[in-house]
Structures are given as structure tokens and as C-alpha cells.
Amino acid sequence: MSDLYDNIPGGSLRLKGGSGLPNKIKKKKKKSHKDKEKLKSYAKDLIEESSTSSEKNNIIRVVTKTEAELKFEEIQKKRLEEKVEKAARKSHKERVAELNRKLEEMTEHYDIPKVGPG
């Protein structure tokens, strides 16, 4: 019977991805001032290179919408206009009256149903 319990590991549970040592939190390293300067100089170099190369190749890309996209936008605008018109037809007073009428027609869910004899 004691042979069954010989191979059971002891100790606390360990979380996934951890090194196994509890209460050990790694802090992110802050970027040094030198790294920022290097990045700035690198960015300036890229901008200078792109400006010299763009003088040689002035390619302008024009993105146009397809017929399906234009039709979709048209239909969306029409539906929005219809929705606004429908909302504008009724006044606030009429909407409240309609809501009250609906609520009166609904069964009252909080009533205790009569179950059983008597």
C-alpha cells in the first residue's frame, strides 16, 4: 500500500510558463537614451533615402471603389434615410402610448399562477 505513494512529488504547485520559483517577477528593461538616439538617426536616414528615391519614381496609387462597394453604400444610405423617416413619423407621446398599450397586452410574469386544487 505504501508503494503507491512513494512516487508522488511534493511541494507547491507551479504555474505554466514560470521558472518554477515562486514570487519571482521579471521586470521589463527600460530603453536607454542611447537606443532612442540610434533609432532617431536610423529614422532620419530612412527618410533621406526615401526622399531621394521618391524623386526618381513618382508613382501615385489611386484607390477606387468597386461597383459592389458603391452599390452597398447606396443601399446603406437609403436604409438609414428610411429609418430616420420612420422614427420621425411618430411623436414621443405616440411612442409612449404604443409602449403602454403593448405592456397592457402582455401577460404579467410576476403573477403567481394558481396550481392545484382550491
From TrEMBL:
Keywords, comma-separated and alphabetical: Coiled coil
Feature: compositional bias, Basic residues: 24-33
Pfam families (UniProt xref): FAM32A
Signal sequence interval, chain numbering: none
Gene Ontology CC, one term: nucleolus
Residue ranges the record marks as coiled coil: 63-109
Region ranges (Disordered): 1-39
Protein name: DUF1754-domain-containing protein
Taxonomy of the source species: Eukaryota, Fungi, Fungi incertae sedis, Mucoromycota, Glomeromycotina
